[in-house]
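Figure 3 (text version): structure tokens given as input.
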């Protein structure tokens, strides 16, 4: 008697996948909160320090010229851009940790991290931000806030809500 091996892989348990997404969500949220406090301690949400960092990227990175012109606009408006970036970072972090409005927040995180990734071309290890960029995109596609998050409460009222 021969045993046959089923070539079709076993389907992953949905609960296990939900827990995996929740772990990624909490990790990315914690990263944003950590970076916020690290940058706050360095004074990077003050206009002069913020502008200095962006000028460094403009001078040293290998981002496309059009992106460098966008960064130049940020330098010119550092008095607004610096505190707005801090507010964005802490907001993304807290909302992801809470699992509240996870899909749109994760999509904003994806866009924000992608912009940082491009800004750092040639100045940092390419994978440093690429993994969190793609993880944030995955969170915006999945229902990451419905496990261990407040989005589970929202989903009870509106199961197909794009916000959770």
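Below: residues designed for each position.
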């Amino acid at each position: 008697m021969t045993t046959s091996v089923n070539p079709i892989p076993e389907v992953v348990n949905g609960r296990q996948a939900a827990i995996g997404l929740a772990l990624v969500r909490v990790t990315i949220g914690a990263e944003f909160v950590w970076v916020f406090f690290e940058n706050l301690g360095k004074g990077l949400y003050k206009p002069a320090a913020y502008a200095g960092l962006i000028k460094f990227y403009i001078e040293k990175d290998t981002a496309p010229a059009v992106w460098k012109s966008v960064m130049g606009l940020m330098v010119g408006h550092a008095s607004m851009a610096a505190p707005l970036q801090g507010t964005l970072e802490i907001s993304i972090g807290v909302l992801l940790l809470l699992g509240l409005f996870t899909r749109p927040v994760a999509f904003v995180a994806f866009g924000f991290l992608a912009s940082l990734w491009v800004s750092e071309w040639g100045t940092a290890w390419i994978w440093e931000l690429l993994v969190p960029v793609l993880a944030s995109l995955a969170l915006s596609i999945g229902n990451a806030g419905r496990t261990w998050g407040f989005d589970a409460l929202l989903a009870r009222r509106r199961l197909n809500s794009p916000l959770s």
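The first helix runs from residue 14 to 42.
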